Amino acid sequence: MGVAITGMGIISAIGHSVEENKTSLLASKSGIASLKHIQTKHSKLIKVGEISFSNAELTEQLQLSEDHNYTRTGLLGLFAAKASLKDANITDSSEYRTGFISATTVGGMDMTELYLKQFATDTEAQKYIQSHHAGDSTQKIADAIGITEFVTTISTACSSAANAIMLGARLIKAGKLDRVVVGGTDALSKFTINGFKTLMIQSDALCAPFDADRKGLNLGEAAAYLVLESDAVVQKEEKKVLAYLSSYGNANDAFHQTASSENGEGAFLAMQKALKMAKLNPEHIDYINAHGTATPNNDLSESNAYRRVFGNDVPDFSSTKAFTGHTLAAAGVVEAVYSVLALQEQTIFPNLNFKTAMPETGLKPITSIVKKELHHVLSNSFGFGGNCATLIFSKA
Amino acid sequence: MKKVFIDSAVSISAQNTFDTYGFLEEIKDISGKTVSANYPNYRDYIALAASRRMATAVKMGVTAASKALEKANLKQPDAIITGTGMGCIEDTEKFLNNIISNEEAFLTPTPFIQSTHNTVGAQIALGLNCKAYNNTYVHAALSFESALLDAQLLLQQDEGKHVLVGGVDELGKEIINYVRLMEDRDSSGIQVPFSEGASFFVVSSEAKEAAIQLVDMEVCSTASEEKLQENLKGFLLRNKIEPFQIDVLIAGRNGDAFDVYYDSASSFFENATELHYKHLSGEFYTASSFGLWAAYEILNRQEIPKPLIYKDESTSEINTILLYNQFKGRDHSFILLKR
């Protein structure tokens, strides 16, 4: 049956809770807008999925002392991780063998880019030297939620959180953990904004995944976590199961450091592995929450991979990145939350801003709210470095 | 559950550990704030054109990985798993400084592309055209241990038979100086230079002759000294090992105030020879992979180089080694090896 999901927490551009995210999805209300919190020359030339809370507001919400050295990545992560535990009705993390696996790409970059040139002399800024490395936000969140044993961080670019979810499930299945909080967090930063700018894959308009005239992605920021629990704990605690993570697949495209292969080899292999592990045939997949970043390269490569896996019967699919922006390391878990919501609501969320199918494949995503019987939802995340990951979620 | 063996171990470090058949024969005295690794001749492993674009960590990682595969007679691993504490900090600093000095103009994508933490794992996969499972761990002093734990899990659960796993970190040019600055402000701070390196291993579930077994490992995010002792007891008990059966303890001492954790672990093993290595490798988040490399060589060669010895209890045969590492009192790891 897979591994039980018993709690979810999320903060994204379309809401500060699971409920708010669900409301926005059902109302087709995008969170993409102009940049507010970061000073950059490019702010007028890009659209982003930014979380409305400032760092000061997050600090207050989380009841942290004002002199803390959390980066925004850490603040967002703690906000979502706490919510996931609350959702799973967990008050004491020491009851069971509990782990914490978080994903990030930027780590503490949001503070490093502000203070780098002050680190040598400014004692106020120096507290952020130690918060640069990618493990820092994870350590802080783990300490704050009382998880003391198995704690780690994964960074495989835009598939990071999917790999964090995968590792958590594997540890539960192997009997090494009873309970694990898995997900990821990435704040927007000048570093990533400029990075994607140099790659010329950032759109100045609202992103349009899978559209023939797509112009690139909108960056976003988010944090989200799932609580996974073993069957024994679910039974003993009489836990309500939100959905099951049935299977997963990880493969490498081994094609290029940033570009995806034209035939979507890595994506194809990851989906095949996941289907095989779940003992499902392609026709059993009722909905795909696609990676769909709206870059010319990704969406074509991904579409070709769908044709290879599903032939002429590609299941209903949509990318929700036009709601949240591409939240990088967090994308895999943001979309895992949306996949679980899709199963709970028996609803497919729309792929916003789509007008014309790309001529190469003719594939059309779902563009409005569709109520439908959903048993199995497949979610994809692909990243730089060829890191491809597929997760399959099934109805509880 | 399948057993896990180490088939090969390769290290690039501040010492001459790569281009040699010897085992820490000539020691390079390392001192000062930071020390670069002893870089091998990359030409033997990476095409010159490709090498020119690669940062230090990528070159060290790809080279150490190639040699680890070669030594294990393996063409294609079933998984590539990398651990790195600071990731590709050279290119990160380069891109960051370009943003600052050029005020976000005239930027080129290359340093950004190569700044992502999974660059080493990705470049290894690209070079081998390896489409298998690929993952990168970036959790400070547990980066390498997380990678090794993942490899152990894959093999135990029969999700693969041969896994390439390694730890790699490069010094970079800027942030490391700030880290050093903060460290040196504290008289009980880290007493060895910061350094860099790459150690890669092929681990497998197939026992070969004279194989070295990775019996078990365990990590712990935070623990008091008392809790650490409890954890260590539990770890030995679960593996049915009595303290006197440990021939060698390899501790990650770096001279800072948190070495008391090693003292408290060491008190368990009165008969064991205790080794240290960070005075040779320098300190960095994945320095413990150098410790594992040394442990592998010791078991293989049945020989302990003198410079490694911290407390000598001459042992005739070396069959069981325990490695313990921590950083600033957190990110504790135990690794148990058996010949």
From TrEMBL, chain A:
Entry GO MF terms: 3-oxoacyl-[acyl-carrier-protein] synthase activity
Family annotation (SMART domains): PKS_KS (SM00825)
PROSITE patterns registered for this protein in UniProt: KS3_2 (PS52004)
Ketosynthase family 3 (KS3) domain mapped to chain residues: 1-395
GO biological process: fatty acid biosynthetic process
CDD domains: KAS_I_II
Swiss-Prot/TrEMBL keywords: Transferase
Pfam families in the record: ketoacyl-synt, Ketoacyl-synt_C
GO terms for cellular component: cytosol
UniProt entry tagged with the keyword Amino-acid biosynthesis: no
SUPFAM superfamilies, per the entry: Thiolase-like
PANTHER family: BETA-KETOACYL SYNTHASE (PTHR11712:SF320), POLYKETIDE SYNTHASE-RELATED (PTHR11712)
Family, per entry: Belongs to the thiolase-like superfamily. Beta-ketoacyl-ACP synthases family.
Protein name: 3-oxoacyl-(Acyl-carrier-protein) synthase
Organism: Gelidibacter algens
UniProtKB/TrEMBL annotation, chain B:
Entry-linked SUPFAM superfamilies: Thiolase-like (SSF53901)
Lineage: Bacteria, Pseudomonadati, Bacteroidota, Flavobacteriia, Flavobacteriales
Pfam family, one: Ketoacyl-synt_2
Keywords attached to this entry: Transferase
One BP term from GO: fatty acid biosynthetic process
Protein name per UniProt: Beta-ketoacyl synthase-like protein
GO CC annotations on file: cytosol
GO molecular function, one term: 3-oxoacyl-[acyl-carrier-protein] synthase activity
Annotated Beta-ketoacyl synthase-like N-terminal domain residues: 49-169
Domain of life from the UniProt record: Bacteria
InterPro entries assigned to the protein according to its UniProt record, in alphabetical order: Beta-ketoacyl_synthase, Ketoacyl_synth_N, Thiolase-like
